[in-house]
Write a structure and sequence with these properties.
Elements (H helix, E strand, L loop, with lengths): L3 E2 L17 E4 L5 E7 L6 E5 L13 H6 L3 E5 L9 E2 L7 H14 L5 E7 H12 L4 E9 L9 H12 L5 H7 L7 H8 L9 H9 L8 H11 L6 E3 L12 H7 L17 H4 L1 H15 L6
Parallel strand pairs: 4-5, 4-7, 7-8, 8-9
Antiparallel strand pairs: 1-6, 2-3, 3-5
Helix pairs in contact: 2-3, 3-8, 4-7, 5-6
Length: 301
């Protein structure tokens, strides 16, 4: 049976600019997922999915303006990250498990007409969910992410994968800072470190880069099946990639060329590095608003 680590609540006592109430969903076996649920319960839904090695703290600058506009914002922590439980063995994590956990949570909340806002691993998980449940989503806003299906790993990503696998130290907050143009405060760096007080608690963060289906990978058939669905997805699909991310630069072209809904997208180039939520939250929020309006799910008030 998998060993579960639950980060103590006191680790999150000094988190800056994070006044959000925690919510939890428990899976069978006791594994617990944390999520934020802000805004009116009857408002149109924006699902914000974070990536690696961050957590929903990444969206703290975006949640208030989206809620103020009348939306309901859901921002979960993937299993292994943030306030969600962490499995302590790398072998306990698979791509398919992450998609399964998030789908179970999504269905438990009975969500409909969702706008997905995703980046990094948030796109790898979120776009698989869109492919499995296209009728539940009204639109997508994608920044600095992808849905690889066996391509060769870009040089920058291959280096990141080697580092995550072999480096004797893995400073989460420092990693976020290096992939962000904005200078983070010491408290913000500490907030990214907060979920991971032990070596074992970083197992998910360590293994995630190796799970990306670049090259020969067990997930490639699932990716190709997802792409077949997305190649028929005709709802608004917006690409909002940044101008300063060496890992995903140019990755929007694949989506613009293959997804019919991209013709309805409100595409733009944002200013910043990989973690665009830190560098250009206003631009990302604007893309969400424009996409929701085109999708016909923007608040009426």
């Amino acid at each position: 049976m998998a060993e579960i680590y639950r980060t103590p609540d006191e680790r999150f006592a000094q988190i800056p600019d994070f006044p959000f109430e925690p919510h939890y969903h428990e899976f069978s076996g006791g594994l617990r997922l944390h999520y934020l649920d802000e805004g009116p319960r009857d408002g149109p839904i924006v699902l914000m999915l974070h990536g690696e090695p961050s957590w929903c703290f990444l969206y703290r600058k975006m949640i208030p303006p989206v809620v103020a506009a009348g939306y309901r914002v859901l921002a979960p922590d993937l299993i292994g990250f943030g306030k969600s439980d962490k499995l302590t063995r790398k072998s306990d994590y698979t791509y398919a498990k992450h998609v399964g956990w998030m789908r179970e949570w999504f269905e438990a909340l009975r969500l409909e007409n969702v706008i997905l806002a995703c980046q990094d691993w948030g796109s790898l998980v979120g776009l698989r969910m869109v492919a499995q449940m296209p009728d539940k989503f009204s639109g997508v806003v994608l920044s600095n992410g992808g849905l690889p299906e066996g391509q060769e790993a870009p040089k920058a990503f291959a280096a990141w994968r080697r580092f995550s696998k072999y480096s004797p130290v893995f400073p989460i907050g420092g990693i976020l800072q290096r992939a962000t143009k904005t200078e983070l405060s010491a408290a913000e760096v500490a907030a990214y470190d907060a979920p991971f007080p032990t070596r074992a608690s970083k197992a998910g963060a360590r293994i995630f880069p190796s799970l990306v289906p670049l090259g020969a990978n067990v997930a490639v058939p699932d990716q190709k099946a997802a792409w077949k669905v997305l190649e028929a997805f005709d709802k608004p699909f917006t690409c909002a990639f940044s101008d300063g991310d060496p890992i995903t630069r140019g990755g929007d072209a694949n989506f613009l060329n293959r997804i019919p809904g991209a013709k309805l997208g409100s595409h733009r180039t944002l200013k910043g590095g990989h973690f665009i939520q830190e560098d250009d939250p206003e631009g990302f929020v604007s893309a969400i608003f424009d996409t929701a309006k085109t999708a016909g799910v923007a608040p009426t008030a």
